[in-house]
Amino acid sequence: MQNKNLYVIIGARPQFIKYAPLAAEIKKINNINEIIIHTGQHYDKNMSGVFFEQLNIKEPDINLNINNVSRGEMVGEMIKKIDKEFKKNIPDIVLLFGDTNSTLAGAVAASSFQCEVIHIEAGLRSFNKNMPEEHNRIVADHLSSILCVTSEEPKNNLKTEGFSKNSIFMTGDIMLDNFNMVKDRILSAGMYKQMNLKKNSYVLGTIHRQENTHKKNRLKSIFNTLNNISNPNFPVVIPIHPATKSKLGDLEVDTSNLVICEPLDYISFLSLVSDSSYVITDSGGLQKEAYYLKKKSIVLRSETEWVELVDKRESYLVDPKNINDIYKSIDLVKDKKTDNFSIYGDGKAAKLIVKIIQSKLD
Ligand code: UDP
Fold this sequence. Notes:
Strand content: 5-15%
Number of strands: 13
Strand order of the largest sheet: 3-2-1-4-5-6-7
Bound molecules: uridine-5'-diphosphate
Order of helices and strands: EHEHEHEHEHEHEHHEHHEHEHEHEHEHH
Number of helices: 16
Largest sheet: 7 strands, parallel
């Protein structure tokens, strides 16, 4: 029997992380020709290479090197180049993750071929059409044949949009698989010591979402507030996303109380989260990881896709338009442990996804 072509489309930091547990499981499948396409959306060593090394992912087969261009140009170039690759080895299965421009481009390119398209983290909705991520995930869902969901909420979103229940698969959160895979390394890393921080006496912050970084006043008020919250005995520590760093460079804003560092590798980053008092973020993945590490978070957004965390008071939304509301939320999160329950499955998503892949190969 001829090997089937399985393409993996990745390009941004959270996608490398989501792919890692699957990479390990896919290795066990026979009769498969796995082709990893890295679009190049994230390309710095600390936004890309380090995750391949640390999470034991093989080097991408193809790197399209598309970055630092406008969204339209990026998605257009990606579709063109992915299509060219697909024509060399016709895809049987295409794997997509999350909601980035690379996800969108992979979905559109795959739609010209008679193949199965698997979308991991399907059905999430912010219902905010100003977010590029919302466009990306909606299009990816509608061009996919297999929709892997993390919980009931995204499943219901898909049903409301008319998806057949036969195309929806409850797998749980693949980031939990990854987290479990490296949990011991995270808990023993002690990154706070290397950064001269005191355990449970700092806040871990990340800001990178376009709605917060692309408006000068918004970014300025967020950083002014974080700087006010921060003090030498209880600093706010920010491993800064390159996109945020470049926007911040154009602003006059006092960051003198903050501890700002370069983006960290996965283990060091989550080690810092695990020894923090609480988290302030606009990241999608970090909302869940903070919960897995039993830390509460303040989410600097007007809405979130991870609504269960807000419902269970694991995360508290603070609309950056009313950034001063953050002060009311701090007492709700500071040094508060989460209850130990599992919203997003049991960390077996990769195995379930591989079973689905195998059923399509037969
Ligand atoms: N992350 C990391 N190092 C950092 C900051 C984040 O490894 O310095 C990880 C984090 O643990 C999470 C992922 O990157 O798994 C989140 O990526 P990001 O916030 O860029 O994207 P989003 O989740 O919002 O799509």
